């Protein structure tokens, strides 16, 4: 399973990169606006430090606007993946971008049927938003499971990129389903690392060792 970081924050990106866990980054207009400053400089820097795909999202809502933006976004680096919203105009743009060989990530996907449309049109990634569905008492991961089955039934190469992740259980479920990628907030990666029994166990090992060393003197 590939781990992407769901952020536009450079400190978070560099920290996870140092851990060796960074396979890519996803951004969106909200995450980008949180960083403030000049988004173009920020996007270019992200593309530079990440050795893997970086999703940058269009903000236009017509096919023409999205294609124009996509052409600009890919100039930030060879690793850019253009994020397109799951709307009719987005699908039109997706077809065009696929034909041009531009990598795409269809975002704001909330049903397996939407994912199927994106896969048919050659999306590189499809992003089901699991957390936002869970918040409405609908299982986000159930949809991801169905997407996996549909893509496998037809041999679609589109990668399932689990998004809107809220907690480590989403990571476990992604692995069990066999989705290709998960994009995680920095806080969830840190939660994955820690277990109280690990901390407790290590403290006991070190205390026992120290006592043993004192005895040996
Ligand atoms: C995915 O690429 C999105 O940026 C992200 O996962 C959205 O999640 P949210 O529901 O936390 O905004």
From TrEMBL:
Q: State its location(s).
A: Cytoplasm
| Keywords of the record | Cytoplasm, Pentose shunt, Schiff base, Transferase
GO cellular component term of the entry, any? cytoplasm
| InterPro entries, alphabetized | Aldolase_TIM, TAL/FSA, Transaldolase_3B, Transaldolase_3B/F6P_aldolase, Transaldolase_AS, TSA/FSA_arc/bac
What is the E.C. number?
2.2.1.2
Q: Which reaction does it catalyse?
A: D-sedoheptulose 7-phosphate + D-glyceraldehyde 3-phosphate = D-erythrose 4-phosphate + beta-D-fructose 6-phosphate
- Taxonomically, which superkingdom? Bacteria
Q: Which GO BP terms apply?
A: carbohydrate metabolic process; ketone catabolic process; pentose-phosphate shunt
Q: Which molecular function term from Gene Ontology is one that the record holds? A: aldehyde-lyase activity
Its annotated pathway reads: Carbohydrate degradation; pentose phosphate pathway; D-glyceraldehyde 3-phosphate and beta-D-fructose 6-phosphate from D-ribose 5-phosphate and D-xylulose 5-phosphate (non-oxidative stage): step 2/3
Q: What class of enzyme is it?
A: transferase
**What broad class describes the main subcellular location of this protein?**
cytoplasm
The record's active-site residues are 83 (schiff-base intermediate with substrate)
By sequence similarity, the record places it as follows: Belongs to the transaldolase family. Type 3B subfamily.
Designated name of the protein = Probable transaldolase
Tell me the lineage of the source organism.
Answer: Bacteria, Pseudomonadati, Thermodesulfobacteriota, Desulfovibrionia, Desulfovibrionales
């Amino acid at each position: 399973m590939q781990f992407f970081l769901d952020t536009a924050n450079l400190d978070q990106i560099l920290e996870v990169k140092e851990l060796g866990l960074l396979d890519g980054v996803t951004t969106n207009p909200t995450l980008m606006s949180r960083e403030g400053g000049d988004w173009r400089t920020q996007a270019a820097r992200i593309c530079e430090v990440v050795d893997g795909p970086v999703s940058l999202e269009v903000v236009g809502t017509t096919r023409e606007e999205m294609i124009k933006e996509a052409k600009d976004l890919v100039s930030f680096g060879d690793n850019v993946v253009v994020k397109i919203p799951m709307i009719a105009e987005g699908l039109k743009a997706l077809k065009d971008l696929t034909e041009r060989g531009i990598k795409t990530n269809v975002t704001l996907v909330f049903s397996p049927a939407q994912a199927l449309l994106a896969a048919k049109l050659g999306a590189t990634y499809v992003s089901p938003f699991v957390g936002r569905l869970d918040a409405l008492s609908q299982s986000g991961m159930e949809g991801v499971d169905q997407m996996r089955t549909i893509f496998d039934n037809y041999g679609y190469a589109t990668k399932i990129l689990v998004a809107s992740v809220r907690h480590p259980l989403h990571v476990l479920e992604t692995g069990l389903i066999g989705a290709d990628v998960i994009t995680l907030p920095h806080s969830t990666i840190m939660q994955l690392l820690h277990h109280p029994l690990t901390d407790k166990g290590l403290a006991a090992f070190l205390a026992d060792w120290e006592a043993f060393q004192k005895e040996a003197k």
